[in-house]
Design goal:
Blueprint lengths: L4 E3 L2 E6 L2 E8 L5 E5 L5 E9 L1 E6 L4 E6 L2 E6 L7 E5 L3 E9 H7 L19 E6 L2 H11 L8 H16 L17 H16 L7 H8 L3 H12 L3 H19 L4 H7 L5 H12 L3 H6 L2
Antiparallel strand pairs: 1-4, 2-3, 3-10, 4-9, 5-8, 5-10, 6-7, 6-9, 8-11
């Protein structure tokens, strides 16, 4: 596959026939992304938040991929190049795997994966589905990767394998017994609402008890559900969001360190500097000067 891409995306080549694409459009503007993908590849597309439109055959056929949904696409008879229109405030991940590589990942008796069958090798697949809570955790970890670049390829490989395992796990529903409220769409909606509240009020967060009352869940279900879906505690997620937003403000070059600290809810500059250094391993001032 040619490594040709245009638009707001980052491609990580894990190994031959195995690629990960991350797109994070945190702006208020729509953006685009295009990438050549030949007919030998399976395409797994995940919209973590926002909305993505996938166009094929020079725009004659379009698919809308909405928040918390996925598509599996495969057509052995023709190339399916990616031509994406990405809405504002959208996070999107694609895992591209060659059919040869894909076959090597499964044992010979994995008959529940339909296109591993010799009878189906020439058939095309267009499958939509929901992103499960366990998949959402892996996707957020991929999207928010901030570890050392030297282990990035290994980390992405592990998380991509995890995503594929979860996608084809026929026992997925059994895992919900540990946290049965996650199987309830209404409770999932409440957990997502809690995340929205945390983001909107990051400078003046409600207490956990106040948040639980506002979304209509018990404190226990809020804690367990938030951790299961987003892979972090409520306050851990809030801190990561604050620091990510602070980094974006510093990147803009329009605010000094004290102004950024105030904008993300720190009345004391030293507390902001300490939190930023803990998150990114450097102070805001050194971060700016190192750019």
């Amino acid at each position: 596959m040619e490594n040709i891409a245009k638009g707001a995306g980052e491609i990580t080549i894990i190994e031959e026939g195995f690629h990960v694409i991350r797109i994070k459009n945190d702006s208020a503007e729509k953006t685009t992304f295009s990438h050549h993908v030949d007919s030998s590849f399976l395409q797994f597309h995940y919209c973590i938040k926002g909305n993505v439109q996938l166009a094929f055959n020079e725009g004659s056929y379009k698919l809308d991929l909405k928040e918390q949904n996925s598509y599996l696409l495969y057509n052995p008879s023709r190339d399916l190049p990616m031509d994406l229109s990405i809405a504002p405030n959208t996070w999107f991940i694609s895992v591209l795997v060659s059919i040869k590589k894909f076959h090597s990942l499964f044992s010979p008796d994995a008959q529940h994966v339909s296109f591993l069958s010799a009878d189906n090798k020439d058939k095309k697949y267009y499958v939509d589905g929901k992103i499960s809570p366990s998949m959402a955790v892996a996707l957020h970890q991929l999207m928010n990767y901030n570890l050392n670049d030297t282990i990035k390829q290994l980390y992405f490989k592990g998380k991509s394998y995890e995503l594929l395992s979860l996608y084809f796990n026929t026992e997925e529903e059994a895992n919900l017994e540990a946290c049965p409220f996650l199987a309830d769409e209404e409770n999932m909606r409440k957990i997502k609402h809690a995340k929205e509240i945390v983001i909107e009020r990051m400078t003046d967060l409600p207490s956990l008890q106040e948040l639980a009352l506002e979304i209509g869940l018990s404190l226990k279900k809020l804690k367990e559900g938030f951790k299961e879906v987003y892979g972090d505690t409520v306050f851990g997620f809030a801190l990561s969001h604050k620091m990510d937003y602070a980094r974006q403000l510093l990147d803009s070059g329009q605010h000094n360190v004290n102004e950024v600290g105030l904008k993300v809810g720190y009345s004391t500059g030293s507390h902001f500097i300490s939190a930023f250094k803990k998150k990114y391993g450097t102070t805001p001032k050194k971060y700016i000067s190192g750019k």
